[in-house]
Amino acid sequence: MMYRTHTCGELRLSDSGKKITLAGWVQKTRDFGGMTFVDLRDRYGITQLVFNMETNPDLCRQARSLGREYVVKATGTVAERSNKNPNLPTGDIEILTEILELLNPAELPPFTIEEHSDGGDEIRMKYRYLDLRRPPLQRNLALRHRMAQEIRKYLDTKGFLEIETPVMIKSTPEGARDFVVPSRMNPGQFYALPQSPQMFKQLLMVSGYDRYMQIVKCFRDEDLRADRQPEFTQIDCEMAFVEQDDVLNLFEGLAKHLFHETLGYEFNEPFIRMPFDEAMNSYGSDKPDLRFGMKIIPLKSGKSQQEIIRPTTGFPVFDEAEYIGTLLAEKCAGYTRKQVDELTEFVRKPQIGAKGLVYVRYQEDGTIKSSVDKFFDATALQTWAEVAGAKPGDLLLILAGNSAPTLKALGELRLEMGRRLNLLDKNRFVPLWAIDFPLLEWDDETQRFYAMHHPFTAPKPSDIPLLDTNPGQVHANAYDLVINGVEIGGGSIRIHDSKLQAKMFEILGFTQEQAEYRFGFLMNAFRYGAPPHGGIAFGFDRWVSLFAGLNSIRDTIAFPKNNMGRDVMQDSPAEIDEEQLKELNIRVDHKNPGA
Amino acid sequence: MMYRTHTCGELRLSDSGKKITLAGWVQKTRDFGGMTFVDLRDRYGITQLVFNMETNPDLCRQARSLGREYVVKATGTVAERSNKNPNLPTGDIEILTEILELLNPAELPPFTIEEHSDGGDEIRMKYRYLDLRRPPLQRNLALRHRMAQEIRKYLDTKGFLEIETPVMIKSTPEGARDFVVPSRMNPGQFYALPQSPQMFKQLLMVSGYDRYMQIVKCFRDEDLRADRQPEFTQIDCEMAFVEQDDVLNLFEGLAKHLFHETLGYEFNEPFIRMPFDEAMNSYGSDKPDLRFGMKIIPLKSGKSQQEIIRPTTGFPVFDEAEYIGTLLAEKCAGYTRKQVDELTEFVRKPQIGAKGLVYVRYQEDGTIKSSVDKFFDATALQTWAEVAGAKPGDLLLILAGNSAPTLKALGELRLEMGRRLNLLDKNRFVPLWAIDFPLLEWDDETQRFYAMHHPFTAPKPSDIPLLDTNPGQVHANAYDLVINGVEIGGGSIRIHDSKLQAKMFEILGFTQEQAEYRFGFLMNAFRYGAPPHGGIAFGFDRWVSLFAGLNSIRDTIAFPKNNMGRDVMQDSPAEIDEEQLKELNIRVDHKNPGA
After folding, report:
1. Which chain A residues are closer than 8 Å to B192 by Cβ?
2. Fewer Cβ atoms within 10 A, N terminus or C terminus of chain B?
């Protein structure tokens, strides 16, 4: 006995006359009086089985009794179809079925197993194993598989070694919370699940492994926003004896290889490398979407010489603004009042935070109208339009305020205009390397510096003296790969000098004891001959979702959790036995008392 | 600036005259008056740097000051060596060094970084990052990398999809203890770390993924024996629409591919397939080492017709024995009293458990002497010798007692003889498939059946009626891959019928509620069209250690834990903040009180 000779996706006209056996799921059964057709489905495709009431009534009746999602095995002969289906690779043939075996019946699924299901989100999560049968999910997981293989293949040819780092490590929270695991054999002590294998990959460089890679699960106990998972997958890489350019060049090669092998997409030019400051000033974001232009144009800026709008205008919003900038929305002068109001509402949303929106219409007839006509004459408005490069028919959208938040708001408005103008083509990809990030971010609330990337990132050598005088001005050898406005990965050249590392910990406000407790083994390792090294980590889930054209990472993952961190299919997490808790030397403390 | 143009392993005589730059670690510095030689090491090899006191005294002095494990960069010209070293791939050349740059100094390592270190186990674990620099460790991890790549490559060509299953799942302990993770967002509830992705891979078959593979971390909170790790790596696979033969054939192909690609080792014959009963009767083990023969020969057996030793002999040990068996140790008749005593001591060890050892020497002169001459005449002994196929010069080693423990003891004695006779050649590999395992094992202590493999293993269809009448006699469609006496992997055809699965849970003593709580989602899934399926999982750490010729899995793992589950390098597990515990709604309960 053998369950099948072929899959449901492979038979063609050239197989006509062959005696074959298929196995799969019943997608659909159709009766046409004397004939019954069954669409049999597996991962590879759909093949039509035919049953004839005249020649074999018993078999035909058996076929008619099959329900959706029944699992069957069918033996028959491949025959040319009279009524060919050009939408199916197997659409030229059908199987004249001779033997039909029911392998397993199926209850009626709670939603349709089709390209687009009729099931709601919640029920599809509960019956994830059924949702996973749908073609889009199957395509996503097949794409993810292909990408994983191609990533390893490429890095293998470049001499990277795949090395597994431990999942149960020491808790060293900095930033997000760790998930922890109580140790039964070491009462009162806990392992942590890694937020990333950062320190281990640096140790591997100290150990001389030269080039390391791993596609690895990482864990963060965060309050989950729309597109976060408590466990996620990282493409984690590190290289010794490299400078920033070596890393960027190698992983640009990886990205191009992936684009080519999985999407057939070619890049003939090197990826743009854009300094952080430029990205912020021109796009209001450190991950600009470069599928369209619409750069931010400064009209008044503390930093730039280009002060188009003079200090005293009589318009307090502008007079008091540290920064004024505009977007040029081409051919949008005809925007209705409603459209402009929508944009105003958009920029006023709390997460955008602008106070209002100033617009200037450069009308088709050459006249200019604005929402600030009271304060500015035609000449002034004309000047702005000229600076922005506006032509008749264009619209200027202007925001004013403090530099950083105004630039960010302009960045968001730019993306909103990109969406409205259909400039975000899912089939076009524009990658860039964002480089020259600041090393540190000042946090007003806790009155300390935080590492913008992580505490192991190397400052630019020329900026090292600034660590003592003006740490906020220090730039880092850190970089992000951004594609279509999505941060796909990021990394840095690391500190390999134990004294510089100690200084960084000091700047970050760690006492020597804290630094020793958390990172002691790494600082020790640096004393025994650490090579210069650097690396990068990519968010694999996100990269797959970008390539799959998805807005969320959830459907790139076979068994994701919901935004309460629950697996509703397994009904997990769950309570555990008192006995198990006792063995682990812990107690559940539901009341969470202050003492 | 660029850190290197070549690695320390690639320069050859044909590169003579080239100007190159290397970077790496100082392995050794040797002074010969006017000349100083530095062996520079990286992952790829060792290259000799030369410094000449006459032509460049400053540089030469700099070279002399380098300590072991200093990290340096050297630029110079490749030159033919007068004194070639045939043991090094780069031994024909040396580098006439012109520029030397110290990249990082190193403290003196606490042990030597050589093929064989002078450091003890404990200190090497504490400084694992230094131990990892040693060539044997580097070879092990490179082999592990190569094997991982080849496993995926092979399975990819066979249509397997690599699909990641979750690490934080529901606790469903059966067998070993789960590690658990308290959920902050779901107070009082816990995730578990998977002991294997068993249920998820079966769900993927229900979901139609057809062929699944993953190289995946698994977790078991066990008291650690010599060669166990709390986290270990499994090559996890599952296939739909298959029978046992399909699985064995495919993974035999994988094993052969791995042998070929990583060891250059060829098999021209199919692997032996040996039923469990035969393995136990002939080798006293379900994982026989077939690198040598020395099968167990029954002299008295409840099961066999071959009763060589008659019921009444006057020797109570034999008279009362349910089973008597012998090993034929060829050319060992000359064993000294001391050697025989050692063997007697060996079989009497508690973990072997025999009461004593009977020997029969078939001496070179044709006479026979035994430790039971009092009870048996020459004719009787002659008969045993004949049955065992002994020739003059051979030795019979006989054990007697209850069947199962005596067979196991004979199996251990056989391995001990294999070791003593040097029959365990590390460079020879003899694989077999152990098949036809019993489905269930009876446990006297808890008075219940346990699944020998796991609760999802399918009974042989012909044995299904026995489930009601004599469950202990049911055989399973389960199989193990055994190489040189090491169980490399095991698997089974699974139950795909929800009613049969429910019956199995009943036989295993689960109440319906328990089964529903633990496995409900799987049993539900089976109602919606589950295909016949089966799979296998290999212990990746063990497979690597077998190929690397190691006796332990520890050095196939970059950062292993000790047998208290501790990472002594990180000093983990460790206590965590009171604040962190509070957020997780748990308390440490050091006293572990009974109530």
Report:
1. 572, 576
2. C
Shortest Cα distance from A17 to chain B (angstroms)? 24
| pTM for this model (two decimals) | 0.95
Q: Which residues contact B584 (CB under 8 A, 6 or more apart)?
A: A180, B182, B183, B184
Nearest to A589 among B3, B208, B586 (CB): B586
Query: Do A188 and B578 touch, CB atoms closer than 8 A?
Result: no
Determine the pLDDT at residue B593. Answer: 45
State both tokens at A17. 């006359």
- Record: contact B129-A183, CB cut-off 8 A: no
- Residue B589 has a pLDDT of 86
* Mean per-residue pLDDT of chain B: 94
Q: Are A438 and A476 in contact (CB under 8 A)?
A: yes
pLDDT tens per residue across span A300-337: 887 655 677 776 678 889 988 999 999 999 999 999 99
User: What are the residue boundaries of the structural domains of chain A, listed by start?
Assistant: 13-104, 292-420
Positive or negative, the CA dihedral B202, B207, B210, B211 is negative
Chain B nearest-CA residue for A525: B129
Task: Tell me which residues of chain B have a pLDDT lower than 50.
Answer: 593-595
Residue B569: closest C-alpha in chain A = A521
What residues contact residue B86 under an 8 Å CB cut-off, 6+ apart? none
Strand order in the sheet with A533-539: A161-162, A211-219, A231-240, A533-539, A486-493, A478-483, A431-435, A272-275
Domain B13-104 has CATH 2.40.50.140: yes
pLDDT above 90 covers what percent of chain A? 85
Q: State whether B190 and A574 contact (CB < 8 Å).
A: yes
Closest in B156, B179, B208 to A181, CB measured: B179
Residues A215, A152 contacting (CB under 8 angstroms): yes
What is A292-420's CATH superfamily? GAD-like domain (3.30.1360.30)
Check residue A595 and give its pLDDT. 36
Q: Are A104 and A70 in contact (CB under 8 A)?
A: yes
Task: Kindly determine whether residue B210 and residue A561, on different chains, have CB atoms separated by under 8 Å.
Answer: no
Write out chain A residues lying below 8 Å of B144, CB-based: 163
Please give the C-alpha separations between residue A106 and each of A103, A465, A584, in angstroms, as whole numbers.
10, 71, 42
> What DSSP string runs through B203-217?
HHHHTT--EEEEEEE
What count of Cα atoms within 13 Å lies in the side-chain half-sphere of residue A69? 23
Nearest residue, CB atoms, A188 vs list B497, B532, B575? B575
For testing the chain A interface, which of B132, B211, B576, B585 should be mutated: the one with the most A CBs within 10 Å?
Answer: B576
Residue A301 CA, distance from chain mean position? 33
User: Chain A: nearest CA to B444, how far in angstroms?
Assistant: 23
Taking the C-alpha atoms of residue A218 and residue A165, their distance in angstroms, rounded to an integer, is 11
Q: Helix axis angle, A244-258 relative to A135-157, nearest 10°?
A: 140
Q: Which of B132, B141, B169 sits opposite A572 (nearest CB)?
A: B169
